[in-house]
Amino acid sequence: MSERISSGDRLLLMLAALANPHRLRIIAGLASGGRNYVSQLARELGISRPLLHLHLQRLEEAGLVSSKLELSHDGKALNYFEVRNFNVEITPEAIAKAARSLTAKSEP
To answer: What fold does the segment set 8-99 form as a domain?
Structure first.
């Protein structure tokens, strides 16, 4: 999914999701290794499953990854994640357009 960001709120959500080293590593791991389930990805990245799940949730809310629950051969439920195709162009013009549609309140 290649898209131009026109919504200020959507742009903030995506940038906030990417503004974390763990989440950048998650995106990189999924982009290079393909879809993966939470336990395996946690082992590969060297972080706990609960922490990974929090970061994956944030990335999914921003539309940067997607998940699918599947059953393994032995009947275990595995939640697979993969990177969604995205391309965000950030230019002064794109930011100006996005800023006009912001509904989020400014921080004090």
So the answer is: Arc Repressor Mutant, subunit A (1.10.10)
